[in-house]
Amino acid sequence: MTDKATLEYNGKKYDFPIVKGTEDELAIDIKTLRSATGGITTIDPGYKNTGSCSSAITFLDGEKGILRYRGYSIEELAEKADFLEVAYLLIFGELPNKQELDKFHADIKEESNVDEEMKKILDSFPKTAHPMGVLSSLTSALIAFNPSTVDVSSDEAMYHAIVRIMAKFPVLVAWTMRKKKGLPLDYGDDTLGYVENIHKMMFKKPTQTYQKNQIVIEALDQLLILHADHEQNCSTSTVRIVGSSHAGLFASLSAGISALWGPLHGGANQAVLEMLEAIENDGGDTKKYMAKAKDKSDPFRLMGFGHRVYKNFDPRAKIIKKAADRVLGDLGIKDPILDIAKGLEKEALEDPYFVDRKLYPNVDFYSGIIYRALGIPTEMFTVMFALGRLPGWIAQWREMRLNNEPIGRPRQVYTGENYRPFVGVNER
Ligand code: ACO
Predict the structure, then answer these.
(1) Angle of helix 315-330 relative to helix 214-227, nearest 10 degrees?
(2) Which of 88, 173, 185, 223 is the most interior residue, by most CB within 10 Å?
(3) Is 230 considered catalytic here?
């Protein structure tokens, strides 16, 4: 095997080194392409063939359906770890020992107050506002109450910023949902575990003491772990590229939330539920919608199917499918939406259109079903995704800053008009 790739253009040959990752992934290092060739660039819309960085955080193999955080398999982490341990692992690179984990949690609790003024900002949003827009705005607004930039050369400053956002973000998430539901805003309880506290902040009824529900807490914990990182996806790339201009952590996260909002990315879990509801309201005819999904003249797509990277199965979908069965079974929920989901899944897995294109249910196909069973409003589903993705975004932002990556600034191939002289308004 050679360690270089040769490009031949206009009778001249140019060599570029091959970079090899720890899992034997190969990439052509084209850093010198423009300078060596006198200006040739590459074009790759959607970055399907472009590695934007080297990263030691998450490994995924879309063909084999492998997902690992810092070397640990998602299956083992989802079964044996809790979300806070996984967050620590992603951000700092190693699983914490008991002392490190306790300190991380204690430091988070210390920072869990959100300035009361923030409530005024939240109040000024109409109840109909989409929670993702609200969350992105509130995350941006946090900057006004906290230092806008982090001294990345100081481990202490970096740690402090991380702990701060890990503490305050769940409060913003819970407030966003309580506002949507017309409930009074609530704070957490320092005696509770990290995810238990999130559950309390979201669901505690104003007239009752907090009712702990272990099944729901475990399901939430697992969902958050499954969403915690997914290497250079759209929102993570957004966080890294915004941060590459040396914008602060909270500003970068706020941009990541906006990127996650879209229905082709995190917004898919909401779109899945809306699609299932629409099919139910239309008489539950899954075959009709299968036909629509395959019809190229119809823009309808089967939401929750297909993935940019996983082309055989999404390992998270396997875990979450089991979790969905468990939660619905344990909570004794019979949901016609679930029957429609199962029907669609069965038909798609046997249909040549979906099989040939390697379109399988992704994580979002099932996560929405669980969120619905937990009583979370549909519009909040993507917010739950953001809550899970928070440690991944932080880890990727931290890695990008510590690696001193250059500002993200892609090139283009210009296809507009050539030079033309300006024409005054009366001559046009
Ligand atoms: N329903 C019907 N057809 C589909 C679907 C779908 N859900 N997904 C892809 N296809 C078809 C395309 O029409 C295309 O067909 P063609 O080859 O005949 O033109 C082929 O499959 C390949 O599709 P692309 O759009 O090129 O695949 P890409 O990798 O760019 O897109 C994506 C992946 C965006 C996830 C796509 O599958 C999709 O839109 N799925 C539905 C939305 C969704 O569930 N998103 C969640 C992603 S997971 C996440 O963000 C956590």
Answers:
(1) 170
(2) 223
(3) no
Residue nearest atom 27 of ligand 1, based on CA coordinates:
308
Name all contacts of 402-406 with Cβ < 8 Å and 24+ positions apart: 402/152, 403/53, 403/54, 405/53, 405/240, 405/244, 406/244
Closest residue by Cα to atom 9, ligand 1, is 306
- As a whole number, mean pLDDT of residues 307-319 equals 86
Looking at ligand 1, which atom is closest to the CA of residue 307? 35
Higher model confidence: residue 366 or residue 279? 279
Ligand 1 centroid – CA 307 distance (Å):
6
Whose tokens are 């309201």? That residue is 281
pLDDT for residue 342: 83
- What is the DSSP annotation of 4-65? EEEEEETTEEEEEEEEE-TT--EEE--TTHHHHHTS-----GGGTT------SSEEEETTTT
pTM: 0.90
Res 1: pLDDT: 66
Residue 330 neighbours by CB distance under 10 Å = 15
Residue whose CA is closest, atom 28 of ligand 1? 308
Give residue-wise pLDDT tens across range 134-169: 999 999 999 888 776 788 888 899 999 999 999 999
> What is d(CA 337, CA 355) in angstroms, rounded to the nearest whole number?
24
375 Rama sector, left if φ>0, alpha if ψ -120 to 50, beta otherwise: left
Residue 7 structure tokens: 């490009």
Please give the pLDDT value at position 365. 87
DSSP 3-state assignment of 329? helix
What does the CA dihedral 262, 165, 77, 27 come to, rounded to 10 degrees? 60
Phi, psi of 23 (to 5 degrees): -105, 25
How far CA 124 is from CA of 117, 179, 202, 310, in Å, comes to 11, 11, 20, 41
Q: Is 66 helix (H, G, I), strand (E, B) or coil?
A: strand
Write the CA distances from 95 to 72, 101, 209, 267, 389, integer angstroms. Answer: 10, 9, 34, 30, 18
